[in-house]
């Protein structure tokens, strides 16, 4: 797990879906004035230079945010996300404002939309990424950074004092045990804090492995579970991720309809042939 660096994948199509839905969920929760906490179990580095060796080695962002970043006619569900990416680039004076050179990670994206009464709790295990996060959020009183295992950290953090939380669980899935550990942790966290909004990001590299994790959640007795998934090509036994999605427990009202609008717009732009999109209530009320 400690070898994983998100810089290789920053801004790819899975990030586009994850971060646009994350912002929609946050916006819906912020319709109420009551404070909330954003909990990130695998926060990463906060931001990524798309011209560095990590991003250039794979070029994944070219098939994701690179195709979308200058779009002007976008649905409401994409607006805040694209504005956040543009703002993150404008904030770096080394680059021209019309050049896509940087990509914000989840903490940076949420930070742009944090209200005075909200706070963030960020977990990161990788030593280098922790240092980058500390530098990025130096002096930020609303942000707490924990250098450690995010799944354990989540269980220690719930229920929060605010009694309102948006939780992003976004592990590397480098180890096969990650799939089991993630499902077990979410079930335990829900038992401690049943009203939290939990967003689980998942990849589809091996469909059977992914579905086993999701089925465990579906069969857990937890109500209100929504699947939001985008595949860019058919499932395959060959190496590589063919789809990615968010499994949402307790989605805010209207997140499903906003996800449908978002994917209807994204699919023709990011599909690589034979892909599909899904927004399905796997478990209802």
TrEMBL record:
<dbReference type="GO" id="GO:0070475">
    <property type="term" value="P:rRNA base methylation"/>
</dbReference>
<feature type="active site" description="Proton acceptor">
    <location>
        <position position="170"/>
    </location>
</feature>
<comment type="subunit">
    <text>Monomer.</text>
</comment>
<keyword id="KW-0949">S-adenosyl-L-methionine</keyword>
<comment type="function">
    <text>Specifically methylates the adenine in position 2030 of 23S rRNA.</text>
</comment>
<dbReference type="Pfam" id="PF04378">
    <property type="entry name" value="RsmJ"/>
</dbReference>
<feature type="binding site">
    <location>
        <position position="19"/>
    </location>
    <ligand>
        <name>S-adenosyl-L-methionine</name>
    </ligand>
</feature>
<keyword id="KW-0698">rRNA processing</keyword>
<dbReference type="InterPro" id="IPR029063">
    <property type="entry name" value="SAM-dependent_MTases_sf"/>
</dbReference>
<keyword id="KW-0808">Transferase</keyword>
<keyword id="KW-0694">RNA-binding</keyword>
<feature type="binding site">
    <location>
        <begin position="149"/>
        <end position="150"/>
    </location>
    <ligand>
        <name>S-adenosyl-L-methionine</name>
    </ligand>
</feature>
<dbReference type="InterPro" id="IPR007473">
    <property type="entry name" value="RlmJ"/>
</dbReference>
<dbReference type="GO" id="GO:0036307">
    <property type="term" value="F:23S rRNA (adenine(2030)-N(6))-methyltransferase activity"/>
</dbReference>
<feature type="binding site">
    <location>
        <position position="170"/>
    </location>
    <ligand>
        <name>S-adenosyl-L-methionine</name>
    </ligand>
</feature>
<feature type="binding site">
    <location>
        <position position="106"/>
    </location>
    <ligand>
        <name>S-adenosyl-L-methionine</name>
    </ligand>
</feature>
<feature type="site" description="Interaction with substrate rRNA">
    <location>
        <position position="4"/>
    </location>
</feature>
<protein>
    <recommendedName>
        <fullName>Ribosomal RNA large subunit methyltransferase J</fullName>
        <ecNumber>2.1.1.266</ecNumber>
    </recommendedName>
</protein>
<feature type="binding site">
    <location>
        <position position="124"/>
    </location>
    <ligand>
        <name>S-adenosyl-L-methionine</name>
    </ligand>
</feature>
<feature type="binding site">
    <location>
        <position position="42"/>
    </location>
    <ligand>
        <name>S-adenosyl-L-methionine</name>
    </ligand>
</feature>
<dbReference type="GO" id="GO:0005829">
    <property type="term" value="C:cytosol"/>
</dbReference>
<comment type="similarity">
    <text>Belongs to the RlmJ family.</text>
</comment>
<keyword id="KW-0489">Methyltransferase</keyword>
<dbReference type="GO" id="GO:0003723">
    <property type="term" value="F:RNA binding"/>
</dbReference>
